[in-house]
C-alpha cells in the first residue's frame, strides 16, 4: 500500500500559546476519502492548515507524492495540487462569481478580459456543483453563505487537484446540494483525487469516506476503516464520554406572546412575513438555502432596510422603531450572525476584547476600560460557555471555529437581551459542543427569553424547537407545532413556495406559446 500513499505526515505537532497538536502520524492514499473528525479545538483545522500551507508545523515533517512537503503559503500548496475549501471562505465579495472562479487566470483577448469566454467557463464550473441557476455575473457578496460555499468548492475543482481538503463542506447546504457534492466526490475519486473530509455530521461519513481519523485534545486516537464504527461509537471516541440521542432542555414554562413580526418585506427576498414568539419559547425557522431566512433576521435586527413591516416587543408586545442594529440592541434584541468571521468577531483581538465589545458600559468609566473588569467578564463567559482557551488574553483567531462561535454567543449573554435571534448557531460545531449550546438555549428559555433559531439542519430544529415556521421563496408557508409535525411535512412546505412560483412563471410562457 506504500506506493499508493499520496500524502504522509509524521510526528506533526503545533504550538501556539499552548500545544494544540501532538505527534500526528497519518497517511492519505490515492483516490481515498479520509474523514477527519473530533470536537472543536481537537486540532482538525490546524492539521489541515498545515497540510494546505496556511500554518507551519512546530515539529515533524510531511511528504507529498514521495517528496518533502512544506508549502510556504496556500498559493504554493495550490500550485502543487493541494486545495482547501475552508469554513472561512476565500472569496472577494465585490467581484462576480465568474471573476472569483478564474481570478488568477482570467481569459483575455487583445489585452482585455474575454467576458464571453469567462462566462462560459464559469457556467461549466458552476454546473459541476449545481449552481446552474445563478448568473455568473452575480456579485459574490449578493449570494447567501450557502451559495458562496458552493462557489468556493467549484473554484477549487478547477485545474490540477491531487489532494482536496473539505472543511465542513455541507454545513450550509441543502439536501439537493449535498447529493450533488457527494456525486462530485465520487467523480474525483475515480480520477484519483484524494480527499480529506472534515465533518461533524457523522451520519454523512458512511456515504462518502473509506477511513476515519479521530482527533481528541490534539492527539490522534483512531485511524480505522469507517465500516468498523457507527455514529455512537465515534461520538464516544471524539468526546471521551457517552452522549444520548435525545436532549432534555429541562422544565420550561412557555408564557404569552412577547415578540411579534408583522408584514416584513424586502424585494423578492422576504415577502410579507408575519409570526409571533412566546415568552420562554424556541421558535425555529426552516427552509432551503435562498428561502430568505438570514435576510429575515437581518431585517428584524435593522441590519438591512425593509420595504415594509413592523416589530413589537414586550409583555404585551408594543411596536418599536428599528432603523439600525443599535436600535435593535437598545430595545433588547440580539442577533448571533451566521457569519462569525465577517460580522461577529474581531479576529485579531483577544477573547476578552471581543466579549467586552458589546458590554462597554459594564467595564468602563469616563471612557476608560477597567482591564480587571474586562478580564473577569471574559473569564465568566469562558467558564459558562466552556470555551477552550489558554486565557482571556488569547487571540480569537487562534481558537477553533466552534469556540469562536461560543465567544460571539457569550458577548450577547452579557447583554441580557429579551429576544435572541440565532442564525445557524451550531454551524461548524462538533456534536459535544452542540449539546452544550442546546442546554444553553434551554436555560435562556427558563429565564423567560424568546428565541428565534434559524438552522439548515432540520433534525436539529425538530429536536429543540417548540414550533417551526417554514420559509419558501421568501414567504412563510406554514407554522408547525411540536407533536404535530413530520420531516416529510416540513420538507414539503420548504419546496411549496418554489413550486408555486415556478407554476406562475410558466403561465405566461404557456399563453405565449398558445
TrEMBL record:
GO biological process, one term: monosaccharide transmembrane transport
Entry coiled-coil feature ranges: none
Membrane topology, record value: Peripheral membrane protein
UniProt domain ABC transporter: residue ranges: 1-242, 252-498
Location, primary (coarse class): membrane
Top-level taxonomic group: Bacteria
Keywords for the protein's UniProt record, in alphabetical order: ATP-binding, Cell membrane, Membrane, Nucleotide-binding, Repeat, Sugar transport, Translocase, Transport
UniProt keyword Nucleus present: no
A GO cellular component entry from the record: plasma membrane
Keyword Glycosyltransferase annotated: no
GO MF annotation terms: ATP binding; ATP hydrolysis activity
Subcellular location: Cell inner membrane; Cell membrane
Protein name: Sugar ABC transporter ATPase
Amino acid at each position: 500500500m506504500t506506493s499508493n500513499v499520496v500524502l504522509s505526515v509524521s510526528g506533526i505537532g503545533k504550538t501556539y500559546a499552548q500545544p494544540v497538536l501532538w505527534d500526528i502520524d497519518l497517511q492519505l492514499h490515492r483516490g481515498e476519502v479520509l474523514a477527519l473528525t473530533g470536537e472543536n479545538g481537537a486540532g482538525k483545522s490546524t492539521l489541515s492548515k498545515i497540510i494546505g500551507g496556511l500554518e507551519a508545523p512546530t515539529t515533524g515533517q510531511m511528504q507529498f507524492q514521495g517528496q518533502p512537503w512544506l508549502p510556504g503559503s496556500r498559493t504554493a500548496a495550490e500550485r502543487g495540487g493541494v486545495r482547501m475549501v475552508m469554513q472561512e471562505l476565500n472569496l472577494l465579495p465585490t467581484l462576480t462569481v465568474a471573476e472569483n472562479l478564474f481570478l488568477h487566470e482570467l481569459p483575455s483577448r487583445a489585452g482585455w478580459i474575454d467576458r464571453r469566454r469567462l462566462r462560459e467557463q464559469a457556467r461549466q464550473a458552476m454546473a459541476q456543483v449545481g449552481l446552474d441557476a445563478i448568473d455568473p455575473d452575480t456579485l459574490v457578496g449578493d449570494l447567501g453563505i450557502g451559495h458562496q460555499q458552493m462557489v468556493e468548492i467549484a473554484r477549487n475543482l478547477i485545474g490540477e487537484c491531487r489532494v482536496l481538503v473539505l472543511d465542513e463542506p455541507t454545513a450550509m447546504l441543502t439536501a439537493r446540494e449535498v447529493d450533488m457534492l457527494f456525486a462530485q466526490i465520487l467523480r474525483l475519486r475515480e480520477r484519483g483525487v484524494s480527499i480529506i473530509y472534515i465533518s461533524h455530521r457523522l451520519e454523512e461519513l458512511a456515504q462518502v469516506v473509506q477511513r476515519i481519523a479521530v482527533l481528541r485534545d490534539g492527539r490522534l486516537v483512531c485511524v480505522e476503516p469507517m465500516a468498523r464504527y457507527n455514529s455512537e461509537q465515534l461520538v464516544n471516541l471524539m468526546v471521551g464520554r457517552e452522549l444520548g440521542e435525545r436532549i432534555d432542555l429541562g422544565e420550561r414554562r412557555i408564557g404569552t406572546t412577547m415578540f411579534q413580526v408583522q408584514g416584513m418585506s424586502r424585494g423578492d427576498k422576504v415577502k410579507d412575513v408575519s409570526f409571533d414568539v412566546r415568552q420562554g419559547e424556541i421558535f425555529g425557522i426552516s427552509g432551503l438555502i435562498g428561502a430568505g431566512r438570514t435576510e429575515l433576521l437581518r431585517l428584524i435586527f435593522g441590519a438591512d432596510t425593509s420595504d415594509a413591516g413592523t416589530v413589537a416587543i414586550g409583555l404585551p408586545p408594543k411596536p418599536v422603531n428599528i432603523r439600525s442594529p443599535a436600535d435593535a440592541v437598545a430595545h433588547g434584541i440580539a442577533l448571533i450572525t451566521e457569519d462569525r468571521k465577517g460580522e461577529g468577531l474581531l479576529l485579531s483581538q483577544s477573547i476578552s476584547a471581543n466579549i467586552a465589545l458589546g458590554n462597554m458600559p459594564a467595564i468602563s468609566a469616563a471612557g476608560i476600560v477597567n482591564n480587571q473588569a474586562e478580564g473577569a467578564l471574559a473569564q465568566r463567559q469562558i467558564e459558562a460557555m466552556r470555551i477552550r482557551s489558554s486565557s482571556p488574553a488569547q487571540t480569537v483567531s487562534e481558537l477553533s471555529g466552534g469556540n469562536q462561535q461560543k465567544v460571539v454567543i457569550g458577548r450577547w449573554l452579557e447583554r441580557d437581551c429579551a429576544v435572541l435571534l440565532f442564525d445557524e448557531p451550531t454551524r461548524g460545531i462538533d456534536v459535544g459542543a452542540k449539546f452544550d449550546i442546546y442546554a444553553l438555549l434551554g436555560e435562556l428559555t427558563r429565564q423567560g427569553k424568546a428565541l428565534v433559531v434559524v438552522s439548515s439542519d432540520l433534525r436539529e430544529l425538530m429536536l429543540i424547537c417548540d414550533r417551526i415556521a417554514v420559509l419558501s421563496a421568501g414567504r412563510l408557508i406554514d407554522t408547525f407545532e411540536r407533536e404535530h409535525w413530520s420531516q416529510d411535512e416540513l420538507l414539503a412546505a420548504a419546496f411549496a413556495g418554489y413550486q408555486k412560483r415556478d407554476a406562475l412563471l410558466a403561465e405566461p410562457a404557456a399563453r405565449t406559446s398558445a
